[in-house]
């Protein structure tokens, strides 16, 4: 036996409307008898359409599926991750694909979109990530027979060669700085921390006696979170120059929870963009050093350790990588033969 359902036709009960309703009922009964009835075709806005419709993908748009997916993602992802997802969804995916229903969408639409944009392959992969996952959920929910994004391969990201600073360049940069600004940049060069980890560093995680620092948190978009990866939770051994920077910093900022402060405000740094604009760019320009972004301090740390003969596994652990595969791939030319 089938299930009895009631649907309302939102029209005025005129004689003509009642006659049309009667005809619709007869057509539905005939289709049921023939086994061709599609609930969604007759009542596409009904809450029962998804439940009983044959072509469920025709009843849900890409926009609706993306919004549903990101609401679920909010329960398990960091705030900064959700912000990136929303950027992709509302600036790229919905404007270009949101009007399509799930059954209309195909990878051809993605290739057409690629012809209209000028962003890196890495950014393209990141933008398409929410779409790929939302359609995966749609497949698991039985809305579509297959995920069309399974046919679209991730684009190969452009390989960016590390551009570490030489010892002479490091000296030229540091001589332009003093106080807390010098301590911050010196520690960055000799610790290999990401900027988000630097500005989140707490004195409670610093052990100067054993010359170790425990990396537990990061600050991304002014919010504290755990480190980028599980392997990012690590303990690093302080190099002499890093230890020197911390000892100096302790005399300037001994009581605050955060190690490094913005000397202009007297408060912890809010983000890497302020450091780049207020400290990094002016120092490099005054020193006459070719510009590289602050992340190159991390590359510099890795290349210095490897060039000095340090075990690649040790360097990987200090950098927060789960194994030394990334070290071999990115810094292979600095590993002594």
From TrEMBL:
UniProt domain Core-binding (CB): residue ranges: 60-139
Pfam families attached to this UniProt entry: Arm-DNA-bind_2, Phage_int_SAM_3, Phage_integrase
Q: Which GO terms describe its biological process?
A: DNA integration; DNA recombination
User: Keywords for this entry?
Assistant: DNA integration, DNA recombination, DNA-binding
Which Gene3D superfamilies does the record match to this protein? 1.10.150.130, Intergrase catalytic core
Q: Which CDD domains match?
A: INT_ICEBs1_C_like
Q: Which InterPro entries match?
A: CB, DNA_brk_join_enz, Integrase-like_cat_sf, Integrase_catalytic, Integrase_recombinase_N, Integrase_SAM-like_N, Min27-like_integrase_DNA_bind, Phage_Integrase
Tyr recombinase domain span: 160-337
Q: Does the keyword Repeat apply?
A: no
Q: Which SUPFAM superfamilies does the entry mention?
A: DNA breaking-rejoining enzymes (SSF56349)
Q: Which GO molecular function annotation, any one, does this entry have?
A: DNA binding
Keyword Cytoplasm in record: no
Q: Which family does it belong to?
A: Belongs to the 'phage' integrase family.
Q: What name has this protein been given in UniProt?
A: Integrase
Q: Which organism is it from?
A: Marinobacterium halophilum
């Amino acid at each position: 036996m089938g299930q009895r359902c009631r649907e309302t036709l939102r029209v005025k009960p005129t004689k003509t409307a009642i006659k049309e309703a009667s005809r619709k009922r007869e057509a539905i009964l005939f289709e049921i008898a023939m086994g061709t009835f599609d609930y969604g075709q007759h009542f596409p806005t009904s809450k029962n359409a998804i439940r009983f419709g044959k072509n469920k993908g025709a009843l849900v748009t890409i926009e609706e599926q993306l919004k549903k997916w990101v609401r679920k993602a909010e329960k398990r992802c960091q705030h900064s991750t959700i912000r990136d997802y929303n950027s992709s969804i509302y600036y790229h995916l919905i404007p270009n694909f949101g009007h399509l229903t799930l059954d209309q969408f195909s990878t051809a639409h993605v290739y057409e979109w690629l012809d209209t944009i000028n962003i890196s392959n890495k950014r393209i992969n990141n933008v398409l990530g929410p779409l790929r996952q939302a359609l995966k959920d749609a497949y698991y929910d039985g809305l579509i027979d297959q995920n069309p994004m399974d046919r679209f391969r991730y684009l190969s990201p452009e390989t960016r060669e590390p551009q570490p600073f030489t010892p002479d360049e490091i000296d030229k940069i540091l001589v332009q700085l003093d106080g807390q600004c010098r301590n911050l940049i010196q520690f960055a060069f000799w610790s290999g921390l990401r900027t988000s980890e630097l500005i989140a560093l707490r004195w409670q995680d610093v052990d100067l006696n054993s010359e170790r620092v425990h990396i537990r948190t990061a600050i991304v978009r002014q919010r504290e979170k755990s480190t980028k990866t599980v392997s990012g939770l690590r303990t690093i051994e302080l190099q002499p120059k890093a230890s020197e920077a911390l000892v100096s910093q302790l005399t300037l900022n001994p009581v605050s929870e955060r190690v490094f402060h913005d000397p202009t405000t007297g408060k912890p740094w809010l983000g890497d963009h302020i450091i780049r604009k207020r400290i990094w760019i002016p120092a490099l320009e005054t020193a006459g050093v070719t510009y590289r972004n602050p992340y190159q301090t991390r590359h510099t740390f890795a290349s210095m350790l490897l060039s000095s003969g340090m075990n690649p596994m040790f360097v990987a652990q200090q950098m927060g990588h789960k194994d030394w595969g990334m070290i071999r791939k990115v810094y292979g030319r600095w590993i002594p033969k």
